[in-house]
Amino acid sequence: MEPTENQGPYQPRTPPMAEDDPVVQWLLQGDPAIRWQVLRDLLNASETEVATERARVEHEGWGARLLALRAPDGLWANGAYFPGTAAFAAATARALAAGEPPPPFPSPDAEPAEAPTDGSSAEPGQPWTATYPVLLDLCHLGMPPDSPVMQETAHLVARNCRWEYDGLPFFAGEVDCCINAGTILIGAYLGVDVDPVVQRLVADQMPDGGWNCWAETRPAPASFASTLDVIDALLRWERHTGGSEEVRRARRSGEEYLLRRNLFRSLRTGEVVNPQWALFSYPPRWHYDLLKATEYFARRGGTPDPRLTEAIERVRAKRRPDGRWLLENSHSGAVHFRFEEPDGTPSRWNTLRALRVLRWYDASAHSGSASQAS
């Protein structure tokens, strides 16, 4: 019998942590993006207090720095997923509309002026400086979605931003299910209609209940990373729109894909699939780890499934004697700036995220209340 899915973040609420707790005090010394979430999720502050702190994300700290890097056309780094690709995407759209072959994809070195700004330096790996990854960052920071600057950004991106794949409009999505998941998350957050992208993801679900971003070119069993990104996006879309039974069924099948594997074990052998999943990065991007996975189930809410226990306890075991969690396994690639560094040092993001997971799990697991899904 499936537990009721709660409609708010990390519900049901537990008694607040003490504001003079040293870890809470340390978290409150961080960026406004951290502080407003601490107020909401750890201190059970009033809606007014939370909203006041959240509004500061637009004007101070990480959020303000990212907004300052937006171009007048609404794009970051002149591209959708990759920097410096806007002209290529537009040319691709024109060519395909005319029945002509698309132009070749530009060399990574074609536009050196699009290198990261704000003090960072280029490094090998996936760049995280273009419109899509920055919009995801802004969503996770909690930039108020109804603010004029975010609504203007949504309008400009819808008008001016096209994917590198076939020059498709940004909010129409493309073919990669992980990218489409992020597009749904962004669209739902900003109030943009992304229902066709949702329907595509539902249609892309694999027979085992999961998803795989390589399914277009390399049919294979579903992947943990792709499945987690998709079910997270579907959950957020449901909560913004009310959802549909078809989408709920698809999401729950994706949850089962992960739960049958205890979030990190091979279904066939029972072995740990990837030891690196026990290392917690921020931002995790499209990568998978146990903190990201358990955070999804905490966000989903309800009574914890017993199959989460081993993963939850691995998150708990990473807590340092001082009550904090470390930043680990930061993913390579150019960024505008880093939220935290270096690896191996205490992370406010990971500490906040882990505390939310444990507070949900400990309160719900001991409540003894299970109820039928709505």
From TrEMBL:
SUPFAM superfamilies attached to this UniProt entry: Terpenoid cyclases/Protein prenyltransferases
The source's domain of life comes to Bacteria
Q: Which InterPro entries match?
A: Terpenoid_cyclase/PrenylTrfase
Q: Composition bias, kind Pro residues: at what positions? A: 100-109
Sequence segments annotated as region (Disordered): 1-20, 98-126
- Name-wise, this protein is Squalene cyclase C-terminal domain-containing protein
Say which species the protein is native to.
Kribbella antiqua
